[in-house]
Structure formats: C-alpha cells, structure tokens
C-alpha cells in the first residue's frame, strides 16, 4: 500500500474513531429522532417516550400554562405563576379550587394571610426594619398588609437571592409566611446581576415543581427533559450523553427502584472505610499462589504462570464454576442466625453487606477496565484494516459486542443493591436465578470479546443475543415503575 493510501486510510480511521467514541462512551443508546423525541421501543421494558427541551421551549410551555390560568380565573400573571408552582402546575385543579373557594386556595398557597393588617393611609410611615420615617411612595407591601421601605426590601431580596432562595422568599414581618410574587421582586431589585440570578433560580424552581419536567443532571447541561409520567425509566440526554432515571434524577439503576438505590448509596458512603479492605486490585492464584492483578473486566481469570482458570470473585475453579447455577452471585445466609447472639448477628449482617458490596464494586471497576479492552479492540481493528484484513464494516461487530457488554454489566451491577434489600422468599429465589444466568452470560461474553477474531463472529453474535435476552428478561420481570 502506498504512503498516500495509508495516510488516507489513517485519516478515515481517526475520523470514524472520534465519531464512535461518543456512542461507545454511553451505557445506553438514545434512539431519538431528529425532533429530540424518544419513541417507545417495543419489547424494551426500560424505554419510554420523552422529549428534550431547550430553555426557551420550557419558558414557552410555562408561559402558556400561566396565560391559560389568567384567562380562566382572571388573576395577575405573577400570581398565576406562583399558584401553579405551589400546586405542582396542575391547572385544572387550581381552576376548580379557585372557583370553589379562592380565599382558601390563596391561603393554602401562602399567597394570602389568615388575618390582614390594616394599612395606614398616612403620608409618612415608619419602616419596621430600619425605623426610618419614610414617605408612602417608597413604602411597599404584600397582600398581608405589612409595609417596608424599598431599601429594606431590596436588601432583604439580595440576601435571599444570594442564598439561592427565589420562589420561597417570604414577607419580612415576623411569623408572616406570605410569599413574594415575581413582579414585586423585579419591581424593587435594580441590580442587573441580582435580577438575572433571581430569574434563573425562579426558572429552576418552576421546572423542579413541574411533574412533567426534569433538568438533565449532566455537568453544565441546560437541557430539560419532558415526559407525561414521572416513571423510573431510562433517559439519555443527547446533548451531554448523561444516562439517568427520570423519576429520581440519579444514575440509571434498573432493576433497583429509586428508594432502594438511595438507601444503598447512603449505606455504601457510610460504610466505605469498612469495605476498603476488599477493594484491592490483586489476589493470589488459588493454585500456584502467585500474585495476580485484574487488568480486564472479565471475572474469568487465567493465571499467566500456571494457566489455571478460576473466578476472580470466589477463586473457584472455572471449569465447574457456572455449569448449572452461578453460585458466586448468590449469598448463602446462615439459617440459624435468628438464634445467635447479637454480636454474631452483627457479624453476619456485615458479612452479607460486604458480599454484595464486593460484587457491586467489582462490576463498577470492570466497567472501567473494559475501557482498556475497547481501546485494544480499536487498535486491533486498525491493524487489521491497515493490513487489508477486512474493512471497518467487517469489524463493526466487535464494537457492537463491547457496547453490549458494558450495557449488560451496567445492569448487572445494579442487581446487587436490589438483591441485598430483597426479602427472602420465592421472588428472591427467582431473582437470584435470573441474576446468576445473566452473570454467567456476561462473563462468557466478556471472555469472548477480549479474544474475538473474525472467524469467531458467529459465536460472538450468538453470545451477544443470549446475554441481551437474559438482561431484558430480568429487567422486564423485576423493574418496578
């Protein structure tokens, strides 16, 4: 091959490589169309319909709701916006409650006081904060009747906004919880930076209170996700490639539910020092006892010295490890633990937690180590293409396999918090069986991905199909919406 042709091939490769990096770095692929709408995919229990909105789209959506409410009950836009915010943007409920008893709705929404203060009509009034006697034109008050000078209001607003309070700003009077509407704040505050910050914080609060909207948690991402139902479903932001749960906003965690994953993450943070000793990267070969470092995602290990095949997690012989049931993923509880002493029960509880934490942590590390495997695959493909051993299309299946492996291992990682909190019984037995089946197929896929060649394509694609079916079956049976 001429130098010019090699240079051209290399340029094409690097261009394709850059495009591919963005896709492979995602654990889940976003199948949205050009209008940023993610359609429901058949046979995918994690998929649901959502829409990606820009800031101006969200503002238009919120303003439409405000306009509709203003026309329906004839209130000022700033009051309508606060009413909707306090009532979770349920326009029909707000309209019905307002027509039934407007005073009660305003009190419940903290927009009107229980007892209104009598307003003094004197041309001069003493401000209760600075105790200065001020002309009436520089005194302002809310529906509660408490009036303060504009300078005191401005200082009060500046302090509140600097501490990120916006829609929750209250009247300055002691024990008065009446909220300050947006137009009142903007009328008083003159500093452009503080005004911008206030409006930014208000927008954040409005989105957070809207049942159909959620900010993308990705760093420096301003995208807002819209979905008709707040389900614990997978969302992938096309702007920053962040994958998260729409209901709780943290990393996507199927099949574990939102409450359980929060408990698990809190427990891991609290017990991190206790679990540190199991986080080492090296173990001894169970046959020749040489020290081995795990440098790939696969738990099927082969000692470089004696060639013994064993499991990284339990150190058992791989030949008999997963032939019938992947016991390595199942915790064996002491059936007589209820009759043991409190000290023994505490030891058993710690043993159980460490069992699940080790496997959770191992899959997290495997996901990181498989980045190295992916880099090796890319280098191998480049070498093959440069040596005329197939084209990029011929080798695409290896990248598809690496992507699917990460997808399956990601799901597998989140099965361990679910299993830890799942009560003993038939459901847990079924879950552990399916978890074990998925674990076995993921390890088989990982082993084959790391060693695949073009002649192994059929075998590898068959293993990919089996692993994905195992994953979907488990998620479909245990994903709680």
From TrEMBL:
| Acidic residues bias locations | 18-40
Q: Which reaction does it catalyse?
A: [E2 ubiquitin-conjugating enzyme]-S-ubiquitinyl-L-cysteine + [acceptor protein]-L-lysine = [E2 ubiquitin-conjugating enzyme]-L-cysteine + [acceptor protein]-N(6)-ubiquitinyl-L-lysine
Q: What is its EC number?
A: 2.3.2.31
| PROSITE patterns the UniProt entry points to | TRIAD (PS51873), ZF_RING_1 (PS00518), ZF_RING_2 (PS50089)
Residue span, RING-type domain: 123-332, 127-171, 288-328
Keywords annotated in UniProt: Metal-binding, Nucleus, Repeat, Transferase, Ubl conjugation pathway, Zinc, Zinc-finger
One Pfam family hit: IBR_1
InterPro entries given in the database record: Ariadne, BRcat_RBR_TRIAD1, E3_UB_ligase_RBR, IBR_dom, Rcat_RBR_TRIAD1, TRIAD_supradom, Znf_RING, Znf_RING/FYVE/PHD
Query: What are the protein's GO molecular function terms?
Result: ubiquitin protein ligase activity; zinc ion binding
The source's superkingdom equals Eukaryota
Q: Name one GO cellular component term.
A: nucleus
Name its cellular compartments.
Nucleus
A GO BP annotation: protein ubiquitination
Query: Where does the record place the region Disordered?
Result: 1-40
Say which family it is in: Belongs to the RBR family. Ariadne subfamily.
> Per its UniProt record, what PANTHER family does this chain match?
RBR FAMILY RING FINGER AND IBR DOMAIN-CONTAINING
Put simply, this protein is called RBR-type E3 ubiquitin transferase
Supply the source organism for this entry.
Paralvinella palmiformis
